[in-house]
Design brief:
heterotrimer, A mainly alpha (about 850), B mainly alpha (about 130), C alpha+beta (about 325), A: about 850 residues, mainly alpha, Cytochrome C Oxidase, Chain A, Four Helix Bundle (Hemerythrin (Met), subunit A), two-stranded antiparallel sheet, two-stranded antiparallel ribbon, 6 strands, globular, C: about 325 residues, alpha+beta, Immunoglobulin-like, 5-stranded mixed β-sheet, 3-stranded mixed β-sheet, heme (chain C), metal-binding (chain C)
Chain lengths: ~850, ~130, ~325
């Protein structure tokens, strides 16, 4: 199917020739390819030989070794099925709660178990389903949208997945031992800090662990979008899904770290009695609420945007024309990403903050309607100008729109602080949030599964079952949640395990319970359709819906290599606008048609215009990622039971595993400096510094890390504004001499890192000893920093506690920096890095730039600011 | 990447231009945080402030708003020139050339400036409508 | 569908159809106070707008996907994005903000004189009254009485964990924090008994932390407060001895006696209240006997120990005596 728009004349850019003398790490050869070059046929014999080699390289491990696979198609599949499994479990919890609430005074669940259930329902839906589902689906389909062979860091995806499985099973498993967290998914202290048992610790550590996995996935996805696009896919031609992934990945980087910082403070209070949230010792439970909701509100959009992204792929296919208002949708994605960070206090409208402060957040909460509205109207506009074919995925999208708009409109209501004073923490909110999440996430994702299922498995799901599932889900949902608006207005609060009769709530609750079972039936029909064996069913055609984007170019039956050759793209809908594209891809006419060295490879391109830059060797199947995940799991899970020694041992082993993994498989010095990428283009195989994917991965990770650190600094500022005794009078401050000494030593280490890198680049000797010296200076810096606060007693008051928390953070990071310095020194000594192959040194010096900024900030907070107040 | 042989240096691959579309929302974010922090500090540290004090920080917020609006307007104006709509009335930017990419980033930047402008005005509205810290 | 559920369904349909459906004594849609009626009005206005907008948007979607005569022009489509995505929300939201934001300071306007301090405990309410100009607080518990037609200052704090104070028929809610005082004000406009409930999850028996708000005509309120401020009038009977024997006074106060415990609710005028165990049980002798015998059975996690070792007669006697504390 084709659709050509009249306002899009095809203009060919002039080709440039890059000559070897200007090359260096650059591409040599003609780019972009001309029509003549592309029209030249590939000899049949060569083609078959290439196919065989590629098939061999991308083959999955067989038998029980299958689980060591790291391919995005496998990891993505496991990831999404696991997340779906957790969703079903969390849904069962909801059903049991609905049974308990069907009539007043029921005794199906006792108070404690009900509290565990609602806590786990919320936590699992958020942390084990909604966010991981985005990551899973993106890992699964993003490389295909981008015509890439795989994600840039396949082992990182696998590591993230195994972390997720271990953490998820640990957290959900606690339900079986009646030990699950029971203070709500928001874990407000002091209720949660004062609570006995290990429930709160399970929540904190288990979910922190999963947050780490989420950040890993975000890093991977952002780098994937920025650096692994096919040649020619400039930023203005990216599929909208990729834009959303970019925005959502960025949001994860800025939203999750505050929660991780909060978790650190929380666990320091629970484990070591540092009084961050204890008002008797200067602490303040409001800090947790701020940190939690700075995470919690963007989280809602982190869930919502990727699902809208799915809709942005389904709608043009249904309308059979390109999306209208591409720039508008990019605006709305980026705009929503930003504005969603200005909404967090709307979860805290009832906390008695000044009206003016609430007003800011009311206004921002209303302003976010504008980008969201633009988004929806762009879809409507696309459907208006197209010739719509209502397929099954589109039915789910339409249902999602009906539900989401209702949730959005109640969102406008609750964003007004005074109205929220009535409905906050009532069933009105329960209704509102389920309307936004079902309409904004569950229904579009199911629609997306129907849409992409032929791509995942080369089989189709049942149209009939799909319609049954839709109508059951849709009606069940509305029967369940529409009455809840009224239940809330009639005064029923959330999170109550029982309620008295006579308040007008009985018929509404009974109705909700009945609806919940209809809804569950709809989800079950979907689950059956998804999982039922389809062995005898015929394979689908290659592009069953007539889509225009690259994922529909994948071969039927499935080939593990992703794309046979990486195409040169000149349109947003290449399958519609580039007539011979698929044929030429299959023939291996485009880039990277071969794997002559037997390595898994993908193409790295430039950020803005997607010019080919490098042939990146990507990692293959491995067990080390599983070991790393298992030990990381140990490091998070043992502290739950206050077993700190095994935790430290596990953390050490996790570090060893990660070092081994990096040492053996990343930034390997290639046998050949350049390789032929096809179409006469010769590309470097090793790139260091700001053009390398590893460097981007480090940069993005450190942005997230810096956000977590900023959250701790925000904590210092918060305590200063919120209380009159921060710092308390006559408080013992950190010893400023030691702090300044520590600062000087750590900055010396930073300078040493830079000096070492520069000397190595120039081919001068002595780089390794300089790096070792830098590591020693950093180690002395750690000692000095600890000496500065050793006299302070963090359990006595929140001021010393906060100062010590900054030191803990700083020491852990400098410790990481020392390990990295040692790694670089070892790489130089053992020839894993050379003057021309110095990627690790660039990445580690980037890390140390962040360390330098952190150390200076810590010095200010520790030694200087408290003396000025 | 060599930029030699390009039709126009203006359309050269802009390393910074992806960041540039985020400038206007960043101004919104800074303005938002500044308003919130000003109000929080004013209400927490000067709770018994006389109306004069209250007036002072509301004026400060309004002044900050003007600065933010001016900045966003300037960013928007630059993005508008970048987009260069009146040149060819192109608003779909779907072509595979440097100009299309360049104008797309200008277009997106312009639209984000519009939304950020509205966002800043919305943030200012409470400071206009609500007096005092109650 | 069974006939019982069928009837329930019909009931609900009827409830939903009848305009102005108000709900029970804990309903925000049956306002009896100035703030609640302002917010109820705001709700009805927004609901009307929301219904119109929902129908318009989904109608448009239905139109373009199902009933449309032919493809529309691109200019129209772009106009839809600007009109629907920017212009419409801009107008609607600005109007809403201008109307609703000034409600906030109005709802927190200073009180007319009387201050009521409510402290959230797990899971009951410590309530203290201080009329204008008075020095001392009058202590009570688990029920709040307010004069009609006057704005009362409500000072909120908490003992251990966060709670939230909420009487839907009178106004919105405000959280109660340990170590921090928050405030709100309420202006009842009708006399009556309205139910309120803790709205912030506060642990095991969060569901069972309610209270009645009794709005009284000003004169009646003055009389009640004067009586409430006085010491208890101890009823005759064995109850007092049982109360002493079981050590109840270690936790509970009865003003005018030596029993001055501060851990549990004040019992000075216990018998005059409208509910038992923080809005969980009716104040009847039978309920009180059950409560004293095993508080944990009624309210999981309650700190009050079980007095199941007392004989039935003793429990009855003690209950009668407590009910007599008018």
């Amino acid at each position: 199917m084709t659709d050509t728009t009249p306002d899009r004349p095809q203009r060919r850019p002039r080709q440039e020739q890059i000559t070897p003398d200007t090359a260096g790490e650059k591409a040599i050869g003609p780019y972009p390819p001309t029509e003549e070059m592309l029209a030249e046929p590939v000899p049949e014999e060569l083609r078959r030989a290439q196919e065989n080699r590629l098939r061999e390289v991308w083959k999955e491990p067989q038998g029980w070794r299958y689980i060591s696979a790291v391919n995005n198609s496998e990891v993505g599949k496991w990831y999404s099925l696991t997340a779906f499994g957790f969703m079903l479990l969390a849904g069962v919890l909801a059903l049991v709660m609905r049974v308990q609430l069907a009539v007043p005074g029921a005794e199906v669940l006792d108070a404690d178990r009900y509290n565990q259930f609602f806590t786990m329902h919320g936590s699992a839906m958020m942390f084990l389903f909604a966010v991981p589902m985005f990551e899973a689906i993106s890992i699964l389909i993003l490389p295909a949208f981008l015509g890439a062979r795989d994600m840039p860091f396949p082992r990182l995806s696998a590591y993230g997945f195994w972390c997720f499985v271990i953490g998820g099973v640990f957290v959900m498993g606690s339900l079986l031992f009646d030990a699950a967290p029971s203070s709500g998914w928001f874990m407000y202290p002091p209720l949660s800090t004062k609570q006995g048992g290990i429930g709160a610790d399970i929540w904190l550590l288990g979910l922190s662990f999963i947050e780490v996995a989420s950040i890993a996935a975000a890093v991977e996805l952002i780098v994937g979008v920025l650096k692994c696009r096919p040649p020619g896919m400039r930023v203005n031609l990216m599929p909208l899904y990729a834009w959303y992934v970019l925005v959502v990945g960025g949001m994860i980087l800025f939203a999750f770290p505050p929660l991780i910082a909060g978790d650190l403070l929380f666990e320091l209070e629970r484990g070591f009695d540092w009084p961050f949230f204890d008002p008797d010792r200067g602490g303040d439970p409001m800090l947790w609420q701020h940190l939690f909701w700075i995470f919690g509100h963007p989280e809602v959009y982190i869930i919502f945007l990727p699902s809208i992204a799915i809709a942005a792929m389904v709608v043009p296919t249904a309308a059979r024309r390109p999306i209208v208002g591409y720039s508008w949708i990019v605006l709305s994605a980026v705009g929503t990403g930003f504005l969603s960070f200005g909404l967090w206090v709307h979860h805290m409208f009832a906390t008695g903050l000044p009206s003016i402060s609430l007003g800011f957040f009311s206004a921002a909460s209303e302003a976010v309607v504008i980008p969201t509205g633009i988004q929806l109207f762009a879809f409507v506009a696309t459907l208006m100008v197209g010739k719509v074919r209502m397929n099954l995925p589109m039915l789910w999208i339409a249902g999602a729109l009906a539900i989401f708009t209702a949730g959005g409109l109640t969102g406008i209501m609750v964003a007004l602080a005074p109205f929220d004073w009535q409905v906050h923490d009532t069933y009105f909110i329960v209704a509102h949030l389920h309307y936004t999440l079902f309409g904004g996430m569950v229904l579009p994702v199911i629609g997306g599964v129907y849409y992409f299922y032929p791509f995942f498995t080369k089989k189709k799901m049942s149209d009939r079952l799909g319609r049954w599932s839709f109508w059951l889900t849709f009606t069940g949902f509305n029967i369940t949640f529409l009455p809840m608006h009224l239940t809330g207005l009639y005064g029923m609060p959330r999170r109550v395990y029982t309620y008295p009769g006579g308040l007008g709530w009985e018929p509404l609750n009974m109705l909700s319970t009945l609806g919940a079972f209809v809804l569950a039936a709809g989800i079950l029909v979907f689950a059956w359709d998804l999982l039922r064996p389809k062995g005898r069913q015929p394979l689908t055609e290659r592009n069953p819906w007539g889509g225009g984007t690259l994922e529909w170019s994948h071969e039927v039956p499935e080939e593990k290599w992703g794309v046979r050759s990486i195409p040169h793209i000149t349109s947003r809908y290449p399958l519609w606008d580039q007539p011979k594209l698929v044929e030429r891809m299959d023939a291996g006419r485009y880039y990277l048609p071969d794997s002559d060295e037997g390595h898994r490879e993908t193409l790295v391109t430039s950020v803005i215009d997607a010019r080919p830059l490098q042939i990146l060797r990507v990692t293959g199947p491995a067990w080390i990622t599983m070991w790393a995940a298992a030990f990381t799991g140990g490091a998070f899970i043992f502290p739950t039971f206050s077993m700190y020694t095994p935790a430290i041992v596990c953390a050490a082993f996790a570090i060893v595993c990660v070092c081994y993994w990096l040492w053996t498989s990343t930034a390997l010095i290639p046998a050949r400096e350049r390789k032929d990428a096809g179409l006469g283009l010769s590309l470097p195989t090793y790139v260091a510094g700001p053009q390398a994917v590893g460097w981007w991965g480090m940069w993005i990770t450190m942005l997230g890390d810096a956000t977590a650190f900023a959250s701790l600094v925000f904590g210092v500022f918060f305590y200063w504004t919120a209380g009159s005794d921060f710092p308390p009078e006559n408080a013992l401050h950190a010893d400023w001499r030691y702090v300044l000494l520590a600062c000087a030593l750590m900055l010396t280490a930073w300078a040493g890192m830079l000096l070492g890198r520069t000397r190595n680049r120039k081919g001068e000797s002595g780089a390794a000893p300089i790096l070792i010296g830098a590591a020693l200076a950093a180690a002395c810096g750690i000692a000095a920093l600890i000496a500065a606060v050793i006299e302070m007693s963090p359990t006595s008051h929140v001021y010393p506690a906060m100062m010590c928390a900054l030191v803990v953070w700083c020491v852990a990071h400098i410790g990481g920096g020392i390990i990295m310095l040692a790694y670089c020194a070892a790489a130089l000594i053992f020839g894993r890095a050379t003057p021309t192959h110095d990627a690790p040194l660039w990445n580690v010096s980037l890390y140390w730039h962040f360390m330098a900024a952190m150390v200076v900030t810590v010095t200010l907070c520790l030694a200087i600011l408290p003396r000025l107040v | 990447m060599a930029e030699k042989g390009q039709l126009s240096r203006e359309f050269a691959e802009e390393q910074s231009s992806l960041w540039r579309i985020a400038f206007a929302p960043t101004v919104w974010a800074v303005h938002f945080v500044a308003c919130y922090a000003t109000a929080a500090v004013a209400c927490a540290k000067f709770p018994e402030a006389e109306l004069a004090h209250v007036g002072v920080w509301r004026v400060a917020i309004s002044a900050g708003t003007l600065v933010a609006l001016a900045l966003i307007a300037w960013i928007g104006w630059r993005a508008w020139r970048h987009w260069d709509y009146l040149d060819d009335h192109d608003y779909s930017h779907g072509r595979d050339d440097n100009e299309s990419r360049h104008e797309f980033l200008g277009h997106a930047g312009f639209l984000l400036a519009v939304v950020s402008f509205i966002g800043v005005l919305a943030t200012w509205l409470p400071a206009f409508l609500i007096e005092g810290c109650t | 569908m069974t006939s019982a559920t069928g009837r329930r369904f019909l009931c609900l349909a009827a409830v939903l159809l009848v305009a102005g459906c108000e709900g029970g004594p804990q309903s925000a849609l049956a306002p009896a106070g100035r703030d609640a009626s302002d917010l109820a009005r705001l709700f009805w206005i927004m609901l009307a707008g929301a219904v119109v907008l929902w129908i318009a948007l989904n109608g448009l979607f239905l139109f373009v996907t199902r009933i449309r005569p032919g493809a529309l022009s691109r200019g129209w489509a772009e106009g839809i994005i600007i009109g629907g995505g920017i212009a419409l929300p801009l107008v609607v939201l600005t109007a809403l903000l201008v109307y609703a934001l000034p409600l906030m300071p109005a709802q927190r306007a200073p009180g007319d004189g009387l201050t009521v301090r409510v402290t959230g405990e797990q899971w009951w309410w410590r309530v203290e009254y201080r009329p204008e100009g008075a020095e001392d607080w009058v202590t009570s518990a688990n029920e709040i009485r307010l004069p009609v037609g006057q704005r009362t200052e409500i000072e909120l704090t908490s003992g251990e964990v966060i709670h939230s104070f909420w009487i839907p028929a009178l106004g919105g809610k405000t959280d109660m924090f340990p170590g921090r005082t928050t405030r709100m004000t309420l202006l009842p406009e009708e006399a009556g008994i309205f139910r309120g409930q803790c709205a912030e999850f506060c642990g095991l028996s969060h569901a069972l932390m309610a209270l009645n708000a009794v709005a009284l005509e000003p004169a009646e309120f003055e009389a009640w407060l004067a009586a409430e401020a006085g010491p208890a009038t101890l009823p005759r009977g064995e109850g007092a001895a049982l109360f002493a024997r079981e050590g109840c006074g270690a936790c509970h106060s009865v003003r005018g006696t030596d029993w001055a415990g501060q851990v549990g609710p004040d019992l000075t005028h216990f018998g005059s209240r409208t509910s038992l165990a923080a809005g969980t049980l009716p104040l009847t002798r039978e309920a009180l006997v059950g409560w004293i015998a095993d508080p944990g059975a009624v309210k999981p996690g309650a700190e009050m120990p079980s007095y199941g070792h007392m004989t039935t007669d003793e429990l009855a006697t003690l209950s009668d005596w407590l009910m007599g504390l008018q």
